[in-house]
Amino acid sequence: MVSKKLSPLTIVVNLTVLFLVVLWTLPTAGLLISSLRDKDQIVASGWWTALGTSSQNAIYRAPPPSAQVEETGVFVISGNVFEDNAGSVSAFGININAPAAYEPGQTAERNDGSKLTLQENGDFRIESATAFEGSRGDRIFFTASVPPRFTLENYQTVLTAEGLGKSFLNSLTVAIPSTIIPILVAAFAAYALAWMKFPGRALLLAVIVGLLVVPLQMSLIPLLKMYNGVGAFFGVPAKGYVGIWLAHMGFGLPLAIYLLRNYIAGLPREIMESARVDGASDFEIFTKIVLPLSYPALASFAIFQFLWTWNDLLVAMVFLGTGDNELVLTGRLVNLLGSRGGNWEILTASAFVTIIVPLLVFFGLQRYLVRGLLAGSVKGG
């Protein structure tokens, strides 16, 4: 049996693909694991320690004085610092400056004369010779080893947020037309630039290539002013779906035309010439020959365009607004993070909620990619 020796180029390609797969899989796996972890554990340790016990510094608020019980002349407040009785206390303290001053089982004397005892399993007992007063319970500072805990509460918080369904529909209303319209316009323009001869074709192509380097942020305000002016002339509202569709079309057309033009220009010339000899018009050649052969390029650009429009927040805020009825999904999830963006459990769960639809689009277009590759194959004659 003769073993086939791999060429150096094949080895490099395989290693590169493996590196890219690992580079994409590890952060995604970490994001998924973090979205299923308890919020306290996310802050305390990294996702790679999710299956192990984590050490956390925590603060527990004891029950108020109204929960005290008198036992043989001593007033007692007791309980457990763990919500689900899962964990192990390694140290505790009575103030924030010394959170690990005592070991489990020891008794700490407080400034008011009361005594605090905290066991390793989390059971605590606060006793005093006089009755406790006030409306709030004392704080207990402790360090604990907490076993791994996985929960769906993060997803429940995200999915049950008020207005999330409306924002989801808003994102679909923005993303679907913003993907289809640029592809249709770019496909016609790419065919004209590739196979139709007219004055200024090279200059027009150069302008399109130049527009690829124009930053979106630089052209956003001038485009908005122009749209408002035209909209006021025709009586079109300044905020609406039409504006954001046109904005996404304008920002996506240069790259779409450039990619599709290069692909369409590489199609076999013999097919075009045979169709013209048979009396086919440019429109018939485009719809019956070019489009079926261009499925791979069209599907590839559709994936990128949909990903951009689905995750877009800046253009949506400018052309659609930030009201409850106009807010897209990304904007709604940003609001869930809070003003300081410290809710990591919401961030990780929101990330997976937002990538569900793009993943469905990607895997749905995979079969069109394969079909386009088969339809674009040409037999040599």
UniProtKB/TrEMBL annotation:
<keyword id="KW-0813">Transport</keyword>
<feature type="transmembrane region" description="Helical">
    <location>
        <begin position="285"/>
        <end position="308"/>
    </location>
</feature>
<feature type="transmembrane region" description="Helical">
    <location>
        <begin position="346"/>
        <end position="365"/>
    </location>
</feature>
<comment type="similarity">
    <text>Belongs to the binding-protein-dependent transport system permease family.</text>
</comment>
<protein>
    <submittedName>
        <fullName>Alpha-glucoside ABC transporter permease</fullName>
    </submittedName>
</protein>
<feature type="transmembrane region" description="Helical">
    <location>
        <begin position="174"/>
        <end position="195"/>
    </location>
</feature>
<feature type="transmembrane region" description="Helical">
    <location>
        <begin position="244"/>
        <end position="264"/>
    </location>
</feature>
<keyword id="KW-0812">Transmembrane</keyword>
<dbReference type="Pfam" id="PF00528">
    <property type="entry name" value="BPD_transp_1"/>
</dbReference>
<keyword id="KW-1003">Cell membrane</keyword>
<feature type="transmembrane region" description="Helical">
    <location>
        <begin position="12"/>
        <end position="33"/>
    </location>
</feature>
<feature type="domain" description="ABC transmembrane type-1">
    <location>
        <begin position="168"/>
        <end position="365"/>
    </location>
</feature>
<dbReference type="InterPro" id="IPR000515">
    <property type="entry name" value="MetI-like"/>
</dbReference>
<feature type="transmembrane region" description="Helical">
    <location>
        <begin position="202"/>
        <end position="224"/>
    </location>
</feature>
<keyword id="KW-1133">Transmembrane helix</keyword>
<keyword id="KW-0472">Membrane</keyword>
<dbReference type="InterPro" id="IPR035906">
    <property type="entry name" value="MetI-like_sf"/>
</dbReference>
